[in-house]
Amino acid sequence: MGFKCGIVGLPNVGKSTIFNALTRSSVLAANYPFATIDPNVGVVAVPDERLQVLTEIVPTKKVVPTSIEIVDIAGIVKGASVGEGLGNQFLSHIAEVDAIIEVVRCFESKDIVHVSGTVDPPRDMEVLKTELILKDLETLAKMKVRWEKAAKAGDKKAAQVFSALSLCEKNFNEGKTARQAALSGEERSLLKESHFLTDKPILYVANVAEDELGRPDTPHVTAVRKKAAEDGSAVIAISGKVEEEISKLEPNERGEFLKAMNLKESGLDQLAREGHKLLRLIAFFTVGETENRAWTVEGGSTAPQAAGKIHSDFEKGFIRAEVIAYDDFVRYRGEQGAREKGRFRLEGKEYVVEDGDVMHFRFSV
Question: In 3D, which of 56, 57, 7 has the Cα closest to residue 240?
């Protein structure tokens, strides 16, 4: 699998409660800062109705959805970049994930103490962004020392890297993230090894009160959306308390509960799917009597790279891929129908996988 989203946020925003519900686990969730010290990890299925449709066409013994890894990272407080709370330890955990899911508290409660005393989502979002920027500035300073000498000596690549770093530094000093830096694709590629924390895509999860779920945006959620729009990040609103209740129900009871709440799907199904999109991932499918399965690849992956997700030998010995687009597979009710209509294709090593492709790989070892 290899794709990780890290759940972050200030203490007492409902982060671990959401993680527990999301992973159907029993990770410690407590009403005091730093209840989470070491990161907890869970694997979350990504809901995809297409897999159910494929199984109606090709009955099978086993159905396996695609998934992503969710890491519950401890609460971050102001000053984390200089060691406040358990700062640097937590920031290093963020460095290890591919994308960030930030839980923002949008509910009032006398029973759950806010680390800053009041509920103010934009302030909380700014605290975390500032700490990540400060950590990135620390990383950037070390990178500039490394590349400056070579740049002055006439090394072309070093000069490009140094120039890109200087642009990022200007952004950081203005309170902007690496995501907002006006870098070319080549410059971003050159800076990959810097692993800037603010370059990671981010999804904001507004944790609302139970009685506010499904209503038009509250002032708190509206404020989150306005703040997130500054760098083009997405926002979803869920209730950690409701999701915790749903997670305790039997699968056949969840649909009735959601219906009673006037909800089409759980917030956590939405979160898992948005997390998948956040990582710019797509899914392809393999179907058969033994197993129907969704596989995750990064957008732009070639057929051999997709084959490698199943087994490394498939990529090494790749010969060709047999491909049917999902819509064609459904429209013509399976492989035979797609063949008869000329919608069955043989693709080589250069083929770029499309989201929803139904694939079978030929290989030699």
Answer: 7
The series of mean pLDDT values per 10 residues for the chain, 365 residues long, is 81 87 54 44 86 97 90 68 50 85 92 80 93 92 91 91 94 94 92 91 94 86 95 92 89 88 86 86 96 95 97 96 98 97 97 98 92
Provide the Cα torsion 110, 111, 113, 117; round to 10°.
10
**Pairwise CA distance, residues 218 & 208, whole Å:** 9
Q: Are 299 and 331 in contact (CB under 8 A)?
A: no
pTM of the model: 0.83
